[in-house]
Structure formats: structure tokens, C-alpha cells
Amino acid sequence: MKGRPELQQPLQKYVDEGHIAGAAAGVWRDGAVQHACAGWRDIESRLPMERYTIFRIASMTKPITSVAALMLVDEGRMSLSDPISVYAPECSKMRVLRRPDGPLEETGACERPITIEDLLTHRSGFTYADFHRGPISRAYREALGREIDSDLAPDEWIRRLAELPLIGQPGSAMYYGVSTDLLGFLIARIEGASLGALLQRRIFGPLGMKDTGFNVPPEKRNRRASTHGFDDKGRLIKRVMWGSEPAVPERPESLTYESGGAGLWSTVDDYMKFARLFLGDGAIDGVRLLRPETLSLMMSNKLTGFQRANSWLLGQKPFAVGRGFGFGLSVVLESDPSDFMRRGNVGTVSWPGAFGGWWQADPKDQSVFIFLAHNMVDLAQMANGIGLGVWAAIEDFQIAAMALNNQ
């Protein structure tokens, strides 16, 4: 057993029951830090999970890219109301499907331009291929390639995305998808650098996030968590897949695509430094990233009541009751101790990652919780109840962390 027993025990339980290969977690409150680890970062080699294990954090990348974009807003280099066509002329003539599952040729004109705020709130009309069964799903796959490590160069990816029809009118509804990837490429264009270089200069370097990036250097690769998942009978195995697509063990040097929506690697300690931003006024340990009013805007719900009630994500309506969505993250609007995603004070922000990661920052309680695992499960397996144990592990860790804070 490694780490604080109260935090380590819920992790170990799900390792022992075969729901996860391993996990690393941490709690920060009022300057005090507690860690816990359980299981294996590689079940075949029997390499143990450790505090500094490096994970691919999937959609936990999105809040980081969103903060970087808001830093440019603070500097007056772009505005939330700017049409994205100002920075991507390729997107100046977008079309909208008449029906989300309809033929690709049946489209209408956009009623208004897509804005930077639309990208931050996923109300742009862009989506993910896996979330649809109609022709748009295949069109996304054929046009854009892999969702995390596409072989396309950023400019070519933007051009191809702009040729696809939107799933809905800009601003009309929340369609979770590639909006943050596009946002990352746009701020990289403004900066005149790659997204990775931008994030390193503006966020990772200043905050001391030394193990976070789109690539894991050769000298650190022994610290990575391997890809783990399940066979069709639900038995834990080492996989060579990231969810539903083949894994690229090392990013080729020629690969210029950097997914601002899902591509980062990080550690518990690194992400904790970032998450602490949401406890204060936009500065961490004397390093200011955002103006206080910008941070407050990011942490405020932007969805209308209708949009909250009708936003679907993986077959659920996550914002229908008590939760909203700000810029790149969820926010608690009505606290409920019985609800995992509302188990925090009003104003608590969070966002998960599809590979078994999750974080939460509660400004009122001045606490941060981080949970990282590699749990590579595709949507078909999830529909059959396979691989869902990691989310129960996260919830039990959250309950244990809150109990520890209340002692």
C-alpha cells in the first residue's frame, strides 16, 4: 500500500477486483498535499504505480487549452465574440445539416458565424465521430483521421473540418466534440507557434509542470502507464489501442498534429498545479495566468436552461439538473452530496478524461482532487457494461477525499 491509507484503500479495492490495473491520486487543501497509488502501471511487467507515473489525460486537456485561449483574450489578441473565420478563413462558409443523422448533402446556411465563445462552450456545431450513427460519423473519420494523433498537419485538418457540415446551428446547443482541438490550432496560429510550444511557454513552464506535454521524452518513458483495457468478457488486459483506435507508442517526429482537446500526458502533481488555478483569483504561487474576472467568467455556466436540459453526452443529460458548463469545464450550480458530479460546494468545477482521469476544484473548500488511470474502453464495451469500474473507483476516492478534508 502506498500513500495515505484513507485515500489508497478505495483505489486498491478496484485494483484487487480487476476493474483497473492501477491508479494514482492526490488531494490538495490549504497547502497540504496527500497522495495515494495502487496497482500497476504495467500489468505484464509488474511495474508498480507511482506518484510520478505519467498518464495520457484525454479530455482533461480541454481546460488547459481553454485557459491558454483566455490568456490571449486577456491580452486583447482575440475576443470571445470574434467569428472563428477571422483566424480560420477556411471556416467562413460553413453549412449545417438539416438533420443530425441526415444525408450530408442536405444542408442549410449558418444563421450566424461560429465564435470563439462557441468553441469554448462546445456550441459551435462541431462534434465527435463516435457520438453519431448517421453519415456524419463516417465523414468525420474519413476526413480527419485519428482523433488524438492524426497524421494530418494542423492547416490541412482545419481545411477538411471546414468542408464538413455542422451537426447544428452555431450557438443552438452543446455538441461535445472537436471544438477545443480547433481552438488550440487557432491560438497557435495567433501565437505563430505550435500548440505544444505555446502551452509550454504560457502554462507548463511558469507553473513548473515539468512532466506535461504532447510527447513523453525517451528518458521518461519508463514512467508512463501502459495502455490497459478489457477483453470482450471484461477481463483486464494490456491493450495496443487507445479506446477504439490503434495506439501510437511514440509520436513520430514528423507528426505536427497536437490535440488541444485530448492529447496531453501529465502526472497527478503537474495537474494539481494547474487545477489550483481555480481556487484563487487567476494566480498560483505568485504566477498570474488569468485576470480574476476572466477566471470567474470561465467558471460560470454559459448554457441556457433549454441547452442544459437537452445536451446529450454518451447517452446522458449531464447538465439537466444542478450542473452547468463554463469554458472547457463543468460547474456545480446546485450541490447534492448523493450525486458524484455535484458532490461539492456551489461553484466547484471539474472535468473527466475518457481514459479514466478526473479532477475537481472547490473554491469554497479550497480543495483539489486528482485521479488518474489508464482505462482504454470503447463505446461498444461501455454499452455492454464493460470497463465502468473506474468511475466507481473515482467516486469512492472522491468520497474518501471529502471525508479526509472534514476530519
Can you tell me about this structure?
By secondary structure, this protein is α+β, with helices and mostly antiparallel strands. The chain is built from twelve helices and 19 strands. β2 and β3 (32-42) form a beta hairpin. α1 packs antiparallel against α12 and α2 (61-74) packs across α6 (179-191).
List the helices and strands and how they pair.
Blueprint: E1 2-3, H1 5-16, E2 22-29, E3 32-42, E4 47-48, E5 55-56, H2 61-74, E6 95-97, E7 107-109, H3 116-121, H4 135-144, H5 154-163, H6 179-191, H7 195-207, E8 228-230, E9 236-238, E10 241-242, E11 245-246, E12 265-266, H8 268-275, E13 283-284, E14 287-288, H9 292-298, H10 305-310, E15 323-325, E16 330-332, E17 349-353, E18 357-362, E19 367-372, H11 379-383, H12 389-405
Antiparallel strand pairs: 1-3, 2-3, 2-19, 3-4, 5-12, 6-7, 8-9, 10-11, 13-14, 15-16, 16-17, 17-18, 18-19
Helix pairs in contact: 1-12, 2-6
Poorly predicted residue ranges: none
- End-to-end gap: 22 Å
Helix content: 25-40%
Number of strands: 19
Largest pleated sheet? 9 strands, antiparallel
* Rg computed from alpha carbons, rounded to a whole number of angstroms: 20 Å
Strand content is 15-25%
Q: What general outline do the C-alpha atoms trace?
A: globular
Mean pLDDT: 93
Decide which structural class fits the backbone.
alpha+beta
